[in-house]
Amino acid sequence: MYNKILLAIDDSLNSLRAVEKVIELQKSWNCKVIMIHSIEHPKKIALTSIALPSGGSSYYISEQSLLDHAKEEGKKLLYRLKEVFERENLPIESRLITREPPEDYIKRITKEEFFDLTVIGTKGIHSKIKRTIIGSVTQKVVKHTSCDILIVR
Questions:
Q1: Structural domain of residue 94, as residue ranges?
Q2: 62 Cβ neighbours under 8 A, 6+ residues apart
Q3: Total of domains in the chain
Q4: CB 14 within 8 Å of CB 121
Q5: Per-residue model confidence (pLDDT) at position 67
Q6: Is this model's pTM higher than 0.90 or not?
């Protein structure tokens, strides 16, 4: 039995499956659930100013506007998934992580806040080169997190 579950989500189908699994666990064990989403993902587009052609002129997208957009999208995702729990009358806390890669946050917070279980959906890295060079968030969580981990595919 688990008392405190950390649910790490992104906008993938496997994250939705992870949400469904955590709902089942929470109904069975009446445990506390904290759901997180990080905008500091290793696969994100490099946040630099970008000039895009726009009918003869250039349109500049600043690093700040990209960050603001990522934060807004992250808030919307957390809100949508929080509603899924609320429809089941289940309490949930959500956190948007903005200044720390997800694997680092998960590693740190599971120790600091004594989580029993981390649940994460994974897409898997298709390229062996990518897997070798950067790894995946899930692989890093498995390697460096001290609590139990449930990987949902």
A1: 4-152
A2: 49
A3: 1
A4: yes
A5: 86
A6: no
